[in-house]
């Protein structure tokens, strides 16, 4: 077991802080490499989300201090104008695009001509976290995020995060068709497999455009 005496703050304060993070140099190198891949569009934002805090950490990544990368705006008209077939496809959301659209809609009042497709696993996560909030097992939800995006108070007796989750759930009911993907039912995902992997697999399908 470690004690404060194991950290040499007097002679090596930086090294002591690095040691307290539990990461060695190899871990930090891998983390830097993943960030570089993300900056180059090679991995998704989803790769950085904490599976134990999926909704709250997605908010933290999108609206906190994490640097979010996106496709250059100039590239979007070229793709959507020249590739008309996307109009005939279902638009599928993952957890990052769901929360982004919900918050943009709250702020700007967006209009949609059809409903989005949403994997059932995402609604299950939201429902489970609502229950945990009601049971007194709240998830972390930073003050910075609350100040940046705000919260619509639905029930003053509940936590801030419960109200955010409930607003998100209501938006899903109004704008999404929740689906269970047959391919996922027939695929054996072990208990040690990633829940985020399941979500990603559920966004893939024929005649679909996944927004991530």
How would you describe what is shown here?
The chain has 212 residues and is mostly helical. Helices cover 50% and strands 8% of the residues. It is built from 10 helices and 4 strands. The strands form 2 sheets. The protein has a two-stranded parallel ribbon with strand order 1-4. A two-stranded parallel ribbon has the order 2-3. Helix 3 packs across helix 5 and helix 6 (120-134) runs antiparallel to helix 8. The radius of gyration is 20 Å and the shape is globular.
H/E series: HHHHEHEHHHEHHE
The 3D shape can be described as globular
Class by alpha and beta content = mainly alpha
Rg result: 20 Å
Please report the number of helical segments. 10
Termini separation: 42 Å
Could you give the topology of this structure?
Layout: H1 13-20, H2 25-39, H3 54-63, H4 75-82, E1 90-93, H5 95-108, E2 116-119, H6 120-134, H7 143-149, H8 160-175, E3 176-179, H9 182-185, H10 195-202, E4 208-211
Parallel strand pairs: 1-4, 2-3
Summarize the structure.
By secondary structure, the chain is mainly α. 50% of the residues lie in helices and 8% in strands.
């Amino acid at each position: 077991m470690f004690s404060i005496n194991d950290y040499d703050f007097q002679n090596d304060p930086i090294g002591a802080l690095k040691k307290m993070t539990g990461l060695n140099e190899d871990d930090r190198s891998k983390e830097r490499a993943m960030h570089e891949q993300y900056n180059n569009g090679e991995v998704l934002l989803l790769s950085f989300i904490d599976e134990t805090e999926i909704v709250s950490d997605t908010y933290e990544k999108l609206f906190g201090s994490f640097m979010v990368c996106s496709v250059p705006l100039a590239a979007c008209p070229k793709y959507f104008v020249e590739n008309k077939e996307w109009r005939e496809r279902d638009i599928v959301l993952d957890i990052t695009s769901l929360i982004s659209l919900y918050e943009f809609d709250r702020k700007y009042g967006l209009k949609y001509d059809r409903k989005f497709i949403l994997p059932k696993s995402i609604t299950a996560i939201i429902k489970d976290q609502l229950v945990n909030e009601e049971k007194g097992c709240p998830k972390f939800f930073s003050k910075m995020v609350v100040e940046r995006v705000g919260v619509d108070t639905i029930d003053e007796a509940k936590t801030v995060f419960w109200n955010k989750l409930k607003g998100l759930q209501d938006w899903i009911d109004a704008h999404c068709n929740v689906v269970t993907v047959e391919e996922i039912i027939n695929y054996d995902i072990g208990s040690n497999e990633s829940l985020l992997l399941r979500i990603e697999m559920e966004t893939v399908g024929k005649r679909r455009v996944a927004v991530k």
